[in-house]
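As described in the Methods, two query proteins were run sequentially through the folding procedure within a single session, without resetting any intermediate state between them. The first query and its resulting structure tokens are shown here.
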Amino acid sequence: ILDVTRGMQLHFVRSDELEEAWRIFTPVLKQIDAGEATPIPYPFGSRGPAEFDDMIKNLGYYYTHYDWAASEGGPAPASAAMPSH
């Protein structure tokens, strides 16, 4: 809330971005509710399911790794998917 009062929008999405996210994810959520799709579980706080690493590799991307470190005024760096060359 303090960010809002200070006009910082870093942690918020624009309304068009939010609408697009709902447009993409609503059909997936409906498939899950209907039992037509099953989410892949993964440990809390992790990057996600191991299957994701296989998927991005098959798409020609790879993960780079950054060590977590304390930073002033912003989040610590995280891993990022990069196109392979």
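Immediately afterward, the second query was submitted; its sequence and tokens are:
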Amino acid sequence: MHQQQLDDELEDDMLEDDDDDDVPGPKKRSKRRNNKRAVCDDDKDDRYFERRKRNNLAAKRSRDARKIREEHIGMRASFLEKENAMLHAQLNTLREESNALRQLLNQRSMMPSSHHQLPPVPAIHQGLPPSSVSHQNIPQQQYSP
């Protein structure tokens, strides 16, 4: 049998098996994957070898592309893990700062009423985000009653 006859028979088989038109869902593209047949040496002509060559190149391109995608995903995962660790460290620092400030406020609330007024924020700290200003940066003389 020649390759054209094999292709024609395969197409006929696919048309005969296409009786599930009323079934919802994706349609099968081809039965070729399921109906792999060995090709006789007589049928291995130039067209066959050219198709094999193209298929091998396509398979190699697909494998290479998958490898690049997997490497990219791995690098992205590594980056996100490092970023996550950094954010957790920042969160812990901010929680510690928040707890320290709460304690400071609690200490202030325990003082006599004449000392309830907080000292003014030094000009050097005005306009900075709260996380960059700690009570340690403010001179001690402003904290003393």
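The helical segments are 3-16, 46-110. We note this only descriptively and draw no conclusion about the first query from it.
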